[in-house]
Amino acid sequence: SNTIIIAIDGYSGCGKSSTAKAVASRLGYAYIDTGAMYRAVTLYFYRHKVDHLSKGQVRKALTSILLEFKFDEATKSSHIYLNGENIESLIRQMHISERVSQVSTIAEVRHFLVAQQRLMGTKKGIVMDGRDIGTVVFPQAELKVFMTAQVPVRALRRQKELEGLGQQVKLSEIINNLEKRDLIDSTRQESPLRKAEDAIEIDTTDLEFEEQVKKVLELMKEPQ
Ligand code: C5P
Questions:
Q1: Mutation test of ligand 1: which of 44, 97, 110, 131 has the most ligand atoms closer than 8 Å to its C-beta?
Q2: What is the per-residue pLDDT for 221?
Q3: Whole-prediction pTM value?
Q4: Is the ipTM beyond the 0.95 threshold?
């Protein structure tokens, strides 16, 4: 078949999700936001006071977590469900952003989610964004993009996104969170964030949204 897997990785707030979503919708591909999956596990751990240093507690918690993506007609985008509850906007809250990178360092959590992500790609025709898609989840992906952008630009975009959810957060707080997450994400033992050797880098600092989408679609047409 002529459908492929597109892996989009990069730092927090570079426009991965919005770009991936638009690319998928134009191609008629499925879109999977893997960050939402790590955020969902983080929300569950927070609610059930799971001690992430206890392997026993982590393993037990993971057996009680069912994640699903369902298409939301109103917003024309997919929403994540945790054990049947739509948690799409809950997981964008700042207190989850502050905890997610720590939870994402846990090997058991990563293995649990990576297995599910690989299943979602068996039929190809998928755009997946995250930190380890091109390196670990789909090293065989036909197109790998690594997105970067300067911190102030990323922080402003994140602030606007939070405003859209009704959350007023100071720019300094957002910058602090982005930098902390980038550091934890790129230095952890288990599948750290790094650019795959065969990934194509797109710096979105000076790009309009539509330009980002076009760049990825253009890369698809080039022989990799
Ligand atoms: O993409 P988003 O910013 O929502 O991701 C939230 C966090 O989830 C990241 O900062 C990272 O700690 C973790 N993550 C990950 N691997 C992925 C996707 C997200 O470790 N594939």
A1: 131
A2: 83
A3: 0.95
A4: yes
